[in-house]
Each structure stands twice: as structure tokens, then as C-alpha cells.
Design a protein that fits this description.
Length: 276
């Protein structure tokens, strides 16, 4: 296709993706009241438990409308994610081989539901996040929370949980293209645990450990599942290479380097070897 045809194709794909987001936003407009009730519930529960006042505050005449519009678009983007992600895939896939198209299709088939699952899981951690952050309010004081700031906070939590659930899928994708092996994952399991806990701590900026483990534990479980898939793929790749006579042990060079180093040390310590 010439460049102009590519640009037209991209425009058409973007229009379809935008229509999907708008239709999702229309649904989000009617779902705004129950969604806002769910978002406000943790704040009210904390206020009732501590005997003080905590409310979401709209600081201008149009702030409530602006809040409803943003929440509707946010819901629309999440609900319509299969549509616009598919449009991205459909635009890219003509330039891929049949095998690569299979990889990307499998990647999308796993990434989309996992992202949605992570977004849903974030609402279980949200009450603990609100409780932890509002626990610093002095007794007798009130929390008057700006609605826009609170929405930004919730969106960050939802997106972080969604992205976190997709990371193991990226690990499997790297294994499928031969960049990352299951053996490498096993060797770096300590680093994976540390990075997972660090990511969870950053994604859930609360002083309590409960919210962090709401994210860390599912991530580690998904990493284990990803390792099982990678190990199975490595075994399949090895059997195929052996059958074709093209198998090369990736650890052979390391073993050879260790042997050469030991042999060199033995030569330096052997007086007969020096004379030779």
C-alpha cells in the first residue's frame, strides 16, 4: 500500500476506535450514579468509623458536570478496550507474518481480560488505600476532598492494577520471540519478587501493607503461570530443534568458558605446563 492508503487506513481505524469509546462513554453516563456511589463509599465508611466528616467536594458550578463527563469517558475507555485494541491490532497485522499474527492475537486474547480483571481488582484495594491515606487526619478535623483530585487518584489505582496484571503476559510474549527463557526466570526469581513488591508499593501509595498485597499476590501467581507457559514453550522449541538437527545448548558457551578458565588456572599452577 502507498503512504496515502496507510494514512486513510489509520484514519478509518481511529474513527472506529473513537466511536467505540463514545458509545462506551454513553453507557458510562448512565452508569455514573452507581459508579460514583461505589467510589464515594470508602470515604463515607472511613468517616463513619472515625466519627468525623469526609466528603467529595465540587469547588465550582461546572465541576459536577466535568466530573460526570470524565468518569463517563473513563468508563467508556475501559468498556470499549476490546474495540480500540482490536483496531490497533488490525492496523498492524498486515505487516506481520502468519506466525507473528498468531502471537499478537494470543497476546491480545490474554491481555484484554487480564487488564479488565486488574481494573476490577483495584476496587477491592481502594477502600484500604482511602483508609490508609485519610488515617493521618487529626481527630476532630474533616476531610473535604476535591472531586477532581479524588478521580485522578482512583484512575491511577485502576490503571496501575490493570497494567500490573498484563506484565506476565508481556513476559510470555518475550519468551515466544526467544528473548526470555524459563531458566532465566528461575534464576532471577528473587529479583522478580523484589521488583513485584516494589511496583506494588509504588502503585498503591498507602501506608498499610494490605493494599500492596492485594496487587503483589495476584501478580506473583500470574508470574508462576507465565513461567509454566514459558517452560512448556521452551521444551516444545527444544524438541523441534532436536528433530531438525539445529539444537544448540544455550548454556554450552557458559560451560566452555568455565572450563577454559579452570584449565587456564591449572596451567598457571602446573610447572610442567609452563615449560611446555
Amino acid at each position: 500500500m502507498p503512504l496515502k492508503a496507510h494514512i486513510i487506513e489509520l484514519r478509518n481505524r481511529l474513527i472506529i476506535a473513537a466511536i467505540g469509546v463514545v458509545l462506551g462513554a454513553v453507557a458510562g453516563w448512565f452508569l455514573y450514579d452507581p459508579v460514583f456511589y461505589i467510589l464515594q463509599q470508602p470515604i463515607q465508611e472511613v468517616a463513619a468509623a472515625r466519627g468525623n466528616t469526609a466528603d467529595v467536594n465540587f469547588q465550582s458550578v461546572g465541576a459536577a458536570f466535568d466530573m460526570k463527563l470524565k468518569v463517563s469517558l473513563f468508563i467508556g475507555a475501559i468498556v470499549s478496550s476490546p474495540v480500540w485494541i482490536y483496531e490497533i491490532w488490525a492496523f498492524v497485522t498486515p505487516g506481520l507474518t502468519k506466525k507473528e499474527r498468531g502471537y499478537t492475537l494470543g497476546f491480545m486474547g490474554a491481555a484484554i481480560p487480564l487488564f479488565l480483571l486488574g481494573s476490577v481488582a483495584s476496587f477491592f484495594a481502594l477502600p484500604n488505600a482511602v483508609k490508609g491515606l485519610t488515617s493521618f487526619t487529626p481527630k476532630g478535623a474533616s476531610n473535604i476532598i476535591n472531586a477532581q483530585d479524588y478521580l485522578s487518584f482512583v484512575m491511577m489505582i485502576v490503571l496501575m492494577f490493570g497494567i500490573a496484571f498484563v506484565i506476565p503476559v508481556i513476559v510470555v510474549a518475550l519468551n515466544m520471540v526467544g528473548i526470555l527463557s524459563a531458566k532465566t526466570l528461575v534464576k532471577g526469581w528473587r529479583i522478580i519478587i523484589i521488583l513485584t513488591l516494589l511496583f506494588s508499593a509504588i502503585a498503591t501509595p498507602t501506608p498499610d501493607a494490605v493494599s500492596m498485597f492485594f496487587l503483589a499476590v495476584p501478580m506473583l501467581v500470574l508470574f508462576v503461570i507465565a513461567w509454566v507457559i514459558c517452560a512448556a514453550n521452551d521444551r516444545r522449541r527444544k524438541r523441534k530443534a532436536i528433530a531438525e538437527g539445529t539444537w544448540v545448548d544455550p548454556d554450552a558457551d557458559d560451560d566452555l568458558d568455565e572450563y577454559d578458565a579452570d584449565d587456564a588456572d591449572a596451567g598457571r599452577n602446573d610447572p610442567d605446563a609452563k615449560r611446555e
